[in-house]
Amino acid sequence: MSYFPAFLNLRTKRILIIGGGIIAYNKLVHLLDFTKNIHIISQEFCDDMLYTIEKKSLSYQQKAYKVGDIKEYEIVIIAIDDRALAKNIYEESREYKCLCNSVDNLEHCDFTFASYIKQGDLTLAISTNGSSPAFAKQLKIYLESIIPRDVSGFLKEMKELRATLPKGKERMNMLKTKAKNYIKSWRKI
Ligand SMILES: C[C@@]1(CC(=O)O)C2=NC(=C\c3[nH]c(c(CCC(=O)O)c3CC(=O)O)Cc3[nH]c(c(CC(=O)O)c3CCC(=O)O)/C=C3\N/C(=C\2)[C@@H](CCC(=O)O)[C@]3(C)CC(=O)O)/[C@H]1CCC(=O)O
Ligand SMILES: NC(=O)c1ccc[n+]([C@@H]2O[C@H](COP(=O)([O-])OP(=O)(O)OC[C@H]3O[C@@H](n4cnc5c(N)ncnc54)[C@H](O)[C@@H]3O)[C@@H](O)[C@H]2O)c1
108 and 26: one domain? Predict the structure, then answer.
């Protein structure tokens, strides 16, 4: 079964990252593109993680994970190097209604992180269902080379048109043609 692609509003969601190594740091950086409502628990923190925690004024605790620490969170990311503990935390998470991501085991993921491009209102996310994160990243790099820098400006213009023109068939056709021609113009770049 494949993961369902959805775009979540994280504004009201409390997120916990367990772990302070490079992988936890990568997940943190990606989450920070969308929310600052993040707490981190770890025994040790890498320098990049500590720098970012300070710069973004994030809350954190330097300690070993204790049963119950995940209780208050809607989203939990397990990014530790202890597979047995990761499994225990995942099993504990089943008692709550939180969504769990475990960086070491796809079977322990209610959701996975996507490789993504974010330019203004355009977010493009890639999943390989865990088959090849390396491929997801390279495909992202390829798509980044195709999508022009002014895409966010184009979306602003489209948003404005949708807000001002009266709804109906005429607007629909006009927006469709404009979008089609914009994408067609990329081939000439
Ligand atoms: C896309 C991206 C997003 C992000 O991290 O935010 C992401 N992994 C990225 C990179 C990456 N990860 C790995 C490599 C080495 C090459 C390779 O193995 O391919 C590279 C490449 C690199 O770093 O260059 C190794 C790896 N990854 C996972 C395992 C565990 C396992 O498979 O069991 C192992 C083995 C660990 C080991 O060997 O010890 C698991 C997961 N990694 C996922 C996401 C989820 C599935 C996404 C999908 O559907 O593809 C999933 C299931 C869970 C999750 O993490 O959510 C990010 C690219 C960000 C970008 O675009 O810049
Ligand atoms: N999903 C991915 O994209 C991906 C990619 C590469 C590796 N991984 C996996 O991710 C895991 C983490 O990798 P890393 O390089 O960040 O490891 P790391 O050793 O640098 O960091 C592990 C972190 O977990 C913390 N930790 C360990 N036990 C803890 C406990 N009981 N309570 C609180 N914190 C604890 C440590 O203090 C440390 O900060 C590895 O197992 C690796 O196989 C995943």
Answer: yes
